[in-house]
Amino acid sequence: MIAPEIEQKIEAIRLKIEPLREAIILHKVYSAIKNLDDLKVFMSYHVYAVWDFMSLLKTLQNNLTCTTIPWFPKGNPDTRFLINEIVVGEESDIDMNGVRKSHFELYLDAMRQLGASTGKMEDFLRAFQESGDLTASFKLASVPSAAQHFVDFTFKVIHSDQAFLQAAIFTFGREDLIPGMFISIVKDMNEKFPDSISIFKYYLDRHIEVDGDHHSHLALQMTANLCGNDEQKWEQVEAVVIASLEKRKLLWDGVLEEIEGR
Fold first, then answer.
1. pTM here?
2. Rounded to an integer, what distance in angstroms lies between the CA atom of residue 22 and that of residue 150?
3. Distance between terminal CA atoms of the chain?
């Protein structure tokens, strides 16, 4: 349960970021997606946001719970519960056939079904896992610049080691940003090309059902627990959430530019 005074702080942030959220939800990139090739471009950028969302999530789990041996109680038990429940849903959900998969792995399956190349993402992951060098891995895999800037910002917040800021962009900057118009476009495409779009439609349905509803409430409670009545923290939260949304808009700008330039 979020205290009334904390609800006021959350509402103030929501009002502040509403214009940016509207700019993202009403972005021209959605109406620019008119065929399967356009959707392939969209997914080839969006996949980086899906992946770094998982990295952000696991950072929160590492910071808010004990993930090392020997185990010791760490942090607030309620916060531990919140982040662990989100991790279970995101890291080990079920696909259309009831097989356990992370949402990122499900997204890659959707790209492969559509015929969108996963090569750059796989090259990036391989390079980053081997070197730990984000910039070099971007270059080696020829990751689109808009995706690079987006992921780079996320990792700056990850490396800040400030759990309340990580929770803030997880809560306000990533959830609930898929508009009904885009869902309608995908639904129409799925009706025409079910053998190409069905996994992606399922991914979106799961995102709305799990991420956009239940998980968003859990994440909000987690952020409230971490910030409490600390005015300075809430000020920093507002600033980092605005920056995060600006990066998302720039990501969509990059997708739109590529679609229109084809």
1. 0.93
2. 19
3. 50
Angstrom distance (rounded) from CA 119 to CA 129: 15
Residues 233, 11 contacting (CB under 8 angstroms): no
Instruction: Quote the CA–CA distance of 123 and 53 in Å, as a whole number.
Output: 18
Whether the CB-CB separation of 200 and 207 falls below 8 Å is answered with no
- Residue 233 CB: number of other CB atoms within 10 A? 18
When the pLDDT of each residue in the chain is averaged and rounded to a whole number, the result is: 93
Residues 6+ apart with CB under 8 A from 142: 120
The proportion of the chain whose per-residue pLDDT surpasses 90, expressed as a percent, equals 80
Sequence-distant (6+) residues with CB within 8 A of 223 are: 10, 164, 167, 168, 170, 171, 172, 237
Residue 92 structure tokens: 């080990």
pLDDT, tens digit, for every residue of 120-157? Answer: 999 999 999 999 999 999 999 999 999 999 999 999 99
